[in-house]
Amino acid sequence: MTTTEATLFEAFLNQHDSDAWTDTVNRLIPKIHLVDKNATKIWFTFFPLDLAKALQSAENPAELIRKLQLKGNFYLKDQIDSSHIFLYGHRFWPEVKSAIVEQALSNKAPASLELATQISDIASIVAKKLSVDISLVIGITSVAFMTLQQVGITAFKMSPGKVLIDAKVAKKSPETILENRAKDNSQGLIMQFLRTIDKVWTVTFNENDPQCTFKLIDGQDIAMAGASDKRDYKARDPRCVEGPVPVECRSAACGTCWVGVLGGAEKLVPVSSREKKRIREFGYIHTDETHPVIRLACVSSSSGALSIVVPPWNGVFGRHLRKLKEAEKDSQREPSY
Ligand code: FES
């Protein structure tokens, strides 16, 4: 296979900007199994195309990283096989990856030039091969397409493409996972009588590891609850100075503590106008939902158990990316002579 053939598929992908991707994901979400609906939305928020493009095209990436206050591991190319470990579909990653590489390196013209259809077609091939329902494969296939667009075929093909979760965990059915996700703890008979004692809930921050939980006292915010987990997380992620959720300001000012909410979003306090404004300025999400899948842990208190995902990085880039997009649109509007 030649590089030219490989770039044909990439050229097709590169025709899709972040708006086209938003439209594609919105069309695919109804077809995704409940176990991966929120996880897919969260992944696409964790790895925004506009940020990847801004970093790729920056004359001085180090300066841009400083300007956008990026911390942690924000390059998808460094986590091709692991970025989506919180999706149920991660189990099917080797097959999805190899089906996409085969398509990207083939001479065959795609059956459709529509992105959502191509994603569904590849998901269907993999689902048939594995004898699983296609709804379990569409989310991870969407993730794989976007990963290829951001990292390029060479890096995508070179990654080992392994399943990175324990074999026992991988055997769990989607129904079992959904049943246990953010399941409220029984408070026991004594607690029911002693109503003055606060209820205690479990926050799970990695569904693939039973050790990855901490306790949250009813009404506490996620960041404060996480700080009571005194295990050492700093060695794995220097941003984690107190517990598994990175924090700095504790007042919705810095964007460090953003988390994805896989389960239990409805038990969190509704987004305040300040949180909504700040989360948009950071560049994470722009939504009018009262209980979105992305929250700031330091201002999100809960009245029940939760399942969350901690992103591997944080930054402040909303305004910068908006300006870049406006400049791009302006340049497209300028008449050519
Ligand atoms: S710790 Fe700064 S926004 Fe939450």
Termini Cα gap:
40 Å
**Helix coverage percent of residues?**
40-55%
Secondary-structure class:
alpha+beta
The amount of beta strand, in percent, is 5-15%
Order of neighbouring strands in the sheet with most strands: 3-2-6-4-5
Tally of distinct domains: 2
Major sheet characteristics: 5 strands, mixed
Gyration radius, in Å: 21 Å
Residue stretches low in confidence (pLDDT < 50, at least 5 long) are: none
Mean pLDDT metric: 93
The total beta strand count reads: 7
Structure characteristics:
337 residues; alpha+beta; Ubiquitin-like (UB roll); two-stranded antiparallel sheet; 15 helices; globular; binds FE2/S2 (inorganic) cluster
Task: Explain what this protein looks like in three dimensions.
This protein is an alpha+beta fold and 337 residues long. The chain folds into 2 domains: 3-172, no CATH class; 181-320, Beta-grasp domain (Ubiquitin-like (UB roll), Roll). It has helices spanning 3-14, 18-28, 34-46, 49-57, 61-67, 93-105, 115-130, 138-151, 153-158, 167-170, 174-180, 188-193, 222-227, 273-282, 318-333; strands at 71-72, 200-204, 213-217, 258-263, 294-296, 306-309, 313-314. The strands form 2 sheets. Strands 3-2-6-4-5 form a 5-stranded mixed β-sheet. A two-stranded antiparallel ribbon has the order 1-7. Strand 2 (200-204) and strand 3 (213-217) form a beta hairpin. The longest helix is centred in the middle third of the chain and has 16 residues, at 115-130. It is globular, with a radius of gyration of 21 Å. It starts with a helix and ends with a helix. It binds FE2/S2 (inorganic) cluster (FES). FE2/S2 (inorganic) cluster (FES) binds at residues 247-250, 252-257, 296, 298.
